Every structure is written in structure tokens, then in C-alpha cells.
Amino acid sequence: MPTNQPADQPEFISKQFEFTAHIRDPDNNAIPDGIESRRMKIYSELFYNNIESFVSSAFPILKSLYKKDDWHKMVRDFFVIHRCQTPYFLEISQEFLAYLQNERESQPEDPAFVLELAHYEWVELALLISDETNSISGIDPNGDLLKHHPVISPLAWSLAYQYPVHKIGPDFIPDSIPEAPSYLVVYRDRKDNIQFMELNQVTARLIQLLNENDDMNGKQALLQIAEELQSNDPDMIIENGLNALQELQQQGILLGVNESRKS
Known about the structure:
Layout: H1 11-24, H2 37-58, H3 60-64, H4 68-81, H5 92-102, H6 114-129, E1 148-152, E2 156-161, E3 182-188, E4 194-199, H7 201-212, H8 218-228, H9 234-250, E5 254-262
Antiparallel strand pairs: 1-5, 2-3, 3-4
């Protein structure tokens, strides 16, 4: 009898557990009595192939780093042990990420950056299907970026990784953690295409401050960064920071300013 079901379960429910247990893990769960093996094989392959197809399409770079057998072993393990919390196929990628974070036991074939790369690829899909919109209500696209509060698009996610996940692929597989982390902003542009921009540490911190403090204007954020850096030339930080804000706005990462939030 498959695990995780009560001993006094009605027979038809027990059969359903046996049926699904075999579909998840046919190598370790017998075919339920009375069902033809050929038909069960069709069901097993259909379900697994659907799951594998969604995972492959969501994590193409990750898949490219595994040998075929190792990849299928990982997807099968996900199929066997993970219990999805959503019925939507488009959210299988999120479930697979949760499996990597919480349930997968590290294997020799797993690269050290497997979780970071998977997260980066998941972000791309999450932004693509997000219901968020860039509302410009109450936002002045021509406002002063230093005097008022710059508004970051909800479709722009600022991220930091130990590994340069945006460069990883079959031709570039880092074998150690770089000295400096990679700062990125991944965003959905005005044409609904997913883009990314590599950031320096200051710009990444600037975006963080603006997202966390909606009563902070651009100049205040940059002065705080100058203080954190113990800079002897805060004016240079402000000048460079303004250039960074303008570039972010040109790319659609920054929408404009909220003039109701003044210093």
C-alpha cells in the first residue's frame, strides 16, 4: 500500500492512491490490480512527459548543464517527492524551485550554483506572466529625480547572486565563487519582453533604498549611500547616481517620480 494514506481508507480511494503512486514512481510502486500494464505505461509517460516539458521550458540553461540521464533523474525525483501547492501548469516552475530549495538532496552532478541559476530563470518566467502593470497614475515622468521620489517599476526586480548567473551556459561554467557578487535588475520592458541590466553595487543599493522608502527623494537616497560608503565626495555620488537614475528611466525600469513625496 502506498505511504501517507490511512489504513481504513475506502477501497476506491485506496485504488486512487495506488494509481497515482505508480504514475509518480513506477519503479517502486506496483501497478494496481486489474489495470493493464500497457495502459498504465501510457498514463505514466503522459504525466511525466508533461511535467518534464514544463520544467525544461522554464529552465533551459539549467537543463543544458546536465547529462540527459541526470536531468531526467532530477525531474523524476521532483515528480516523486514534491507535493505541488498550485494546480496551474504555469506555476510548475515555482514548484520546481521550491523543490530545489527545500527538498532536493545535493547530488554530485549538481553545479554549486544550481539554486541561483534556477532562481534567475524562474524570475524571467515569473515576470513574463505577472499580472502587475506599470500604472502611471500619480507619477510624473518628467519630474526632478533628485527632488522627488523616483518610482521603480513593479515589473523590475533587483537581484544579487554570488555567481554571474546571467552569463552561465554550456560554454561558461564557473568553478568557484567570484570575489564580487553579481547585481542585476531583471525587468519586463514596454514591449513585454524580458530584459536584464547588470548593475554596480551603488545602483543596486539605490534601487533598494527607493523600493523600501517611498518618502525618500533621490538626493536623500544618494546622500545615505555616500554616508554608507564614507565618501569624501558626496557630490560625485549624487552626480553619478543621477546618471544612473536617468539610465534606469530610459530603460523603463524607473517610471518617473511621485511628486507627492517631497523632501
